[in-house]
Each structure stands twice: as structure tokens, then as C-alpha cells.
Amino acid sequence: MIFKSIISAILVAILSLIGMLCTQNDNSNLVYAALFCLPYFILIAFLYFRFNTIRRKLNLFDKPNIIFELAYGFVFYIAFCVLLPVLLFVTTLGDDYEHKLYADLGDLILEMFPVILTLSIFLTIFSSIIITWAIRSYKVLLPVIIMYIFFISIVYSIAQYDNEKQETTISGDTIKEGGNDGWRGSMSNPEAYPVQLYKGIFLLSNNEKYEFTFNEGNTVNYRAKWGEDGGNTDKKTMALPKALDLTWYSFAENIFYRVNSPIDYNKLQMLFDTPYAEKRSKGKTQENYNSIIMGFAPGGVLVVWAGSSGHRQIEIGRYPAEKINITKQISYDEKLKYGDLFNQEWRQKVLTDTTIVPYKVQQITKNKPIPYGYWDKLRIRYNWHPTFVVSPEIKIYDADFSFYNAERFVFSDETLLNNINEERGIPENVYIKWYDKNDNRCAVDFEFNEEKIFKQFDVFFNKQKNTNAKIEFNISQKNKTATAMLINGENKLLLLETPIIEYGENY
Q1: How far apart are alpha carbons 494 and 90 in whole angstroms?
Q2: With left for phi above 0 and alpha for psi between -120 and 50, is residue 299 left, alpha or beta?
Q3: CA spacing 20 to 30 A to 313: which of 2, 9, 332, 469?
Q4: What own/partner pairs with CB < 8 Å and gap ≥ 24 does 71-80 have?
Q5: pLDDT-derived band of residue 178, with 50, 70 and 90 as boundaries?
Q6: How far is CA 146 from CA 8, 150, 286, 502, in A?
């Protein structure tokens, strides 16, 4: 019976956490938290299955009553779920850094309560089914698991539908004017060079100061990528920042850096106050800029981007930092504590942990100097614009541009035809998709080689003294190929030729 209880507890805990995650918006920190807390929920599910005294007294175990199980299970699980933040509060009392995250216990429980409630419902339903049906026979267990998976799929579909309903669907080309309805800060760093925020302050446009830290799940970024957000602050509705005061530690350099500088508030405000339309499978939706991504690179380089709920990301500026000394003594004798910057064991763990810096990346960078200046090279811009030449029988759906400077932009509809010359970064990837005359989805994926395309742009723009140019994307449905050609007057340079992808009628 104990073995059955263990198996049942594992199944209920895993499937309930999956079900809860399916109801939430994409949140990597919540996934980390779910994995971290999985043993706790396995334990309480196991206690649920073993706590049968009341059932025996009421003769409800041999003749199960689903109504009783649902009522009893919900009270049991919501009590233990509420206990979790209390335990986090108590167990971090000796750690100033960790305890700060849980110090306001009341607000923490209120903030977590929607997730607690959702998870308690899943735990209750799944446990009740297991205890009343499946635990009595292994023959019943397999169809119950299949039913769980089917049920979770339905929950996920409903959650996605609700999320889509919450987005503002735009009819025609009209975009509703809007404003800042909440934003968050996010951290970014190159994959091989992890950093950790020591102190962060936003000076807001209304002259208030907002001190922040990044979420516990991402004190450092795991498998980071330059320009992509990792650890986040809580999303809040407040004024936008006009200045930053950031202090961080660079593990690979063993250096603290500080930036205390105003940022381009006007550009930030213009982006955040102007919604834009983006295509989805069911039409256009309104998207907004809602994150300020701070990229920390070796050498004290801080690059700030405005990130959005869609597929746009725009650089706000680059801000140099100064090296500073933090005088707190490093403790060599203390036990390893997660996030303790002054513990030498933690510093070493961050640099050697393959979940933070992948093993392959560690081997590539081992015994090699840090490439100072590389992240500034990625920011180089040239004056150009894209044009699109396509076979007459097809219509471009959209063209998704990713740049080496970590900016992103999607051209669609009128912007495919009416875009002007402006300073843009060097494209890393361009994915163009469309539907052919038979309504089958097709696409072309331009993956540009970094070394080659940087050299091509340098030669074309600088050696030939061109002031502006265009990249012509030529798609030939007949020849099943597409080309990207850099053009200025009579000067032409083939950047890449690649085959067309035909997905077929099922896409």
C-alpha cells in the first residue's frame, strides 16, 4: 500500500504542477519554482494518501465518496500550500539576502494566492480520483493517467483562449492609442559571462526611487543569451525610469561595476506609449512595450533595450560603468548559500555549473581572454532598408528580423512596402513566411554567418563609401530559392541564397 501511495503521490504532484503551469502566462521563474518545490508537493500528496484514520472511522475508504474526498482534499491541500511561503519565511531567517525576498509574508501569500488556489484545486481533483478509483487497482491507473493528460490539454486550451481574449483584437489597421499599463525590469548577459545584481535602483520620471532585485529563481541567468531577458523584477504600474543606478558583479572578471546615469527617457516613453499591431493566426492584436531589459557585458558595458509583448525589441542606449570596490570580506568557511556574492564557493559554482554556463561554452572559453569590445561591435549600424521581390502568385505574410545587436522587428502589410532608410543593425536571422496560391504555408529562413556578414557590410559600406543601401529579398516560388542581396545603385553583393521551405496544407 505504501508503494501505491508513493507512485500516486508522484503522479498527482507532477500532473498538478503541469496543470497549474498550463493556466499561467509564460513565466520561466514559475517553472523554476515548480521544479524546486516538486519534492514538497510529492510529500504532502503522500501524506494525503496515508492519512486514512478519518476514512476508516467513517468507512469511506472501502466505499469511497467523491464528494467527501473533494471537500476534505481541498481543505488539506490549500492549508499545506499556504504553509509553503510560511516555511520559506522561517527557513531563510538566518540569510539576509534570501530572507529579504520573503520578509513581507502577508503580501507574499496574497501575491501567491491565485497560484496556490489553482494548484490546490488540481491536487484535490487528481488525488480524489486516485484515492477513490485508481489506487484500488493498477488496471485502472493507466486509463486515469490518460484521462489526466486529456484533461490538462483541455485546461491548457481554455487558458490559451482566455489569454487571447484578454488581448485586444484589432479590426482593420486601426490601433487603439494606449499607454504604460505596467512594466518590469529584466536582466541579460552573454552566455559565458554570468553576472549578479548587487543593488538596483530606478529613478522614475516622477522623481521617486524604486529599489529592485531580480526574482530568486534567476539570481543569475541560466543558459543566458545576449539581449534575451532572464531574471525579472515584479511587473508594476508606475512611472518609467529616467535614470539607472546599478551595481553588479561580473564572475568571470571578479569585478564589481556601477552605472549611475540618466537614460534616454524620451525614446523609452515614446515606445511605451505607442501600441502597435502584430499579426496572429486569428487576425491583428495590439502589442505593447512592457519590459526594460538591462544587458551586462564584460568591461562594464550596460546596454538597455525596450522589450515588448510581441516580436519587437529596440535598443535604448549603451551606458559605460566604472569599476568599484565592495569591501565586505569574502567568507571561505561558510557553507554554500544560493546567491551569496561574498562566498567564494558560490562564485566558483556559478562559473562551473553547466546549468548556468553550458559545458560546451565553458570548454570554448577556457584559458581564452575575454573578448572586450565584442558586444560593442555587435551594435554597429548602417543606413539601409529591406525590400521584397516575390513571385506574383504569392503574398508575403510577414518578415521577422532578428539583429546581432539583439533588436527585433516584424515587417508586415504596409510596412513591407513602405519602410524607409534608417540606421539599422546587421541582421542575424530573417524569417519570411507566406501562403502560396493553394493556401499552403511556405517560408524562407535566412541564417546569416556572423563573421561573413560583418565583413560583407564593412566592405560594402566603408570601402566603397556607400552612404545608404537596401537589402533586396528575392523569393522565387518557381525556382524554390530565395536570395538576400545588398544593393546600392550599381553595386550589388549577394549575402545569402537559401531554399524555400514548403510546410504544406497542414500549417
Answers
A1: 63
A2: left
A3: 469
A4: 73/48, 73/123, 73/124, 73/127, 73/128, 74/120, 74/121, 74/124, 76/44, 76/48, 76/51, 76/124, 77/44, 77/48, 77/119, 77/120, 77/123, 77/124, 77/127, 78/116, 78/117, 78/120, 80/44
A5: very low
A6: 14, 6, 37, 34
β strands within 205-288, DSSP E = 209-212, 241-250, 255-262, 276-280, 283-287
Q: What is the pLDDT of residue 59?
A: 65
Average pLDDT for the chain: 81
How close are the terminal C-alpha atoms of the chain, in Å? 48
Sign of the CA dihedral running 331, 198, 193, 298:
negative
Phi, psi of 96, rounded to the nearest 5 degrees: -60, -40
Q: What percent of the chain has pLDDT over 90?
A: 38
Min mean pLDDT across 111-125, 226-240, 311-325, 372-386 is at 111-125
Neighbour-count burial of 391, counting CB atoms closer than 10 A to its CB (0-12 exposed, 13-18 middle, 19+ buried): middle
Find, among 272, 265, 212, 268, the residue nearest to 242 by Cα. Answer: 265
Crossing angle of the two packed helices 28-50 and 105-132, in degrees rounded to 10 = 50
**pLDDT tier for residue 180 given thresholds of 50, 70 and 90:** low
pLDDT at 171 (0 to 100): 36
Residue closest to 489 by CA, chosen among 455, 458, 456, 464: 464
Per-residue confidence band for 137, with pLDDT thresholds at 50, 70 and 90? low
Determine the 3-state secondary structure of 318 from DSSP: strand
Could you list the beta-strand ranges (E) of 33-121: none
Q: Provide CB contacts within 8 A for 429, sequence distance 6+.
A: 400, 401, 402, 445, 446, 447, 448
211: burial class by Cβ within 10 Å (0-12, 13-18, 19+)? Answer: exposed
The yes-or-no verdict on residue 134 having pLDDT over 60 is no
Long-range CB pairs of 93-102, under 8 A, 24+ apart, other chains included:
95/337, 95/340, 97/337, 97/339, 97/340, 98/216, 98/337, 98/338, 98/339, 100/213, 101/213, 101/216
Identity of the residue numbered 93 = L
Angstrom distances, CA of residue 324 to CA of 193, 254, 255, 351: 18, 11, 8, 21
Residues contacting 315, CB < 8 A, separation 6+: 303, 304, 305, 379, 405, 406, 407
Assign 471 to helix, strand or coil.
strand
Residue 451: how many CB atoms within 10 A of its CB? 8
What is the average pLDDT across 285-294? 91
> In the structure grid, which three cell numbers stand for residue 339, read together?
546567491
The stretch 278-306 carries a mean pLDDT of 88
Q: Are 294 and 274 in contact (CB under 8 A)?
A: no
